[in-house]
């Protein structure tokens, strides 16, 4: 990251990096170019092969990893499931999983919050999807498999020269077998559910009843792929956000105090009422995702020659938009490196240069789900605990997502 920052400072908001062998990448923190690629002229851009080929190997073809007509049809089908009113129905399931998971917090010693939030975020997706039809063993196994798939993808991307070794050593095959096992676990749950007549209020039931324009439902295979994708897209991003948010709160006692005041006012409220009465908590989360956007890069490839400002970018160029850099630009944010949640409370619209959930038609479908989950975690957490930081500064691990490193915090029961 500092490497990119230096390059942006030296070379400007958009620059090209030569990777050798005739390959090059365009890095940009220009919000107008990003909006053009993601929204205004999105028809002339596709996702990079990292998502539409490399990731597909491990997680199949779901909303996140498909393109063109296939994507359009699936997005149209799945969008209503993620409307606010449908996510509201999942709040009790979410809340239940959150309360159980937060029991793992210890107060007698400093703890790394990332593994706790990572398990929590995975369980919240699992329970929202399947309610009580999934066992704890199945959840642990699915979590292990999806994380192994992501680790393998990181390895492949970082060490492309070792591709033959991954194949020859059997490592790749082993990982692909794991993906098969994950699909079998999900398939078992779906098959059982199809035989039940009673209705459940979970995502699986919604997905089973959702239909295309011609009245048909998703094929069994498509449903399996979409569910696996929800696990992949929905858990690490959320746990990163939770970890960075709590670290920032611990380092800013005034913010923590204000947050606790709001949490106390919400103490006796239902989860839905908590969501509706948490403006400061929401601002805290938004400010945290400004400084540490869990998806810190969005990639696209232009399918046509692109003319933008003084640049002509030949077609089939990889473009990487740095949300991390964009969210820290002096021209848009006063004291850009400081954590000031109030900037999200002054009624100003930041949509032109702040988009932690992406922008345009491929914007995160789970954005409400994620925000509601994080607000409910903050409510549960700060109703019981106060937190202190133990190490400076916040450390980052920029992999596929922006992960925290050594997110060690000390929890104390509130007096
Ligand atoms: C704080 C948490 C989250 C962040 C920061 C985040 C961020 C993003 C971003 C930036 C994109 C767009 C990527 C692109 O344009 O290339 C995206 C797409 C997506 N996200 Fe999220 N996400 C989060 C949570 C979730 C959750 C909880 C779910 C599901 C339960 C989810 C499901 C998806 C899916 C399926 C897509 C692909 C949408 C499409 O291409 O049509 N995300 N997310």
Topology of this structure?
Layout: H1 2-11, E1 14-20, E2 23-28, H2 31-40, E3 45-46, H3 49-59, H4 68-78, H5 84-88, H6 91-102, E4 111-112, H7 113-130, H8 136-158, H9 163-168, H10 171-195, H11 203-209, H12 220-251, H13 253-265, H14 271-276, H15 279-291, E5 297-302, E6 306-308, E7 311-313, E8 318-322, H16 323-326, H17 367-384, E9 385-389, E10 395-398, E11 402-405, E12 408-413
Parallel strand pairs: 2-8
Antiparallel strand pairs: 1-2, 3-5, 4-12, 5-8, 6-7, 9-12, 10-11
Bound molecules: protoporphyrin IX containing FE (HEM).
Could you describe the 3D structure shown?
- The protein is an alpha+beta fold and 415 residues long.
- The chain is built from 17 helices and 12 strands.
- Protoporphyrin IX containing FE binds next to helix 12 and helix 17.
- InterPro entries: Cyt_P450, Cyt_P450_CS, Cyt_P450_E_grp-I, Cyt_P450_sf, Cytochrome_P450_Monoox.
Question: What characteristics describe this protein?
Answer:
binds protoporphyrin IX containing FE, five-stranded mixed beta sheet, globular, 54% helix, three-stranded antiparallel beta sheet, Cytochrome p450, single chain, alpha+beta, 415 residues
